[in-house]
Design brief:
Strand order of the largest sheet: 1-2
CATH topology: Serine Threonine Protein Phosphatase 5, Tetratricopeptide repeat
Order of helices and strands: HHHHHHHHEE
Number of domains: 1
Largest sheet: 2 strands, antiparallel
Helix content: 55-70%
Shape: elongated
CATH class: Mainly Alpha
Structural class: mainly alpha
Radius of gyration: 25 Å
């Protein structure tokens, strides 16, 4: 290494040591800013989770919902969202526990009741699923077609457990706009 190269390296090192604290976001740069993000600027984990669920990214949605739980506590919205993500991942035992807890926290939270009914249908607890769907249907004042269809299917399964529609789908419901369809698991 020549003397000029050595001096240039030393000068660059000294200049870097005198900087105000690392890399900054350059206006119009396509790269993310470096450093810690202020938590007051972060996006709500529930919103992120709902968007990931809509995109079919259930594992990532579960992580976002877990982050929301860590930041905001285990509200009925968070419990229901965690239960729904676990349901989509096929973790029926975990989903049932979370959704039952959500219905205990808020006995009038329609999405938790409906999604609990979906879990019970998946575990072939048709009688209890029909009871749970009735609660959801009554709380919703019969306005949701998804809940009505879920109740109708549960009642048909009670009458004839071998009953199966050609396109057997259960509808997941969450608070706000949109719904998720859950294909029957084998």
């Amino acid at each position: 290494m020549g003397a000029r190269t050595f001096v240039a390296v030393i000068a660059a090192s000294l200049l870097a040591a005198c900087s105000s604290g690392g890399l900054q976001q350059v206006e119009g740069s396509p790269f993310a800013p470096v450093g810690r993000v202020d938590s007051s600027q972060s996006v709500d984990g529930l919103i992120v989770g709902h968007r990931l669920m809509a995109a079919g990214e259930y594992e990532l949605a579960l992580r976002a919902y877990s982050r929301a739980a860590a930041e905001d506590g285990m509200s009925v919205d968070v419990l229901s969202a965690l239960g729904s993500a676990n349901l989509r991942l096929g973790r029926l035992g975990q989903a049932e526990k979370l959704l039952r807890r959500a219905t205990q926290e808020d006995a009038e939270f329609v999405p938790a009741w409906n999604n609990l009914g979906v879990v019970l249908m998946e575990t072939e607890e048709f009688g209890e699923a029909a009871r749970v769907f009735r609660v959801a249907f009554a709380l919703d004042s019969g306005e949701s077609d998804d809940i009505r269809d879920n109740l109708r299917l549960a009642l048909a399964k009670i009458e004839n457990p071998a009953y199966s529609e050609p396109d057997n789908q259960f509808a997941l419901v969450r608070r706000g706009t949109g719904s998720y369809l859950l294909l029957e698991t084998p």
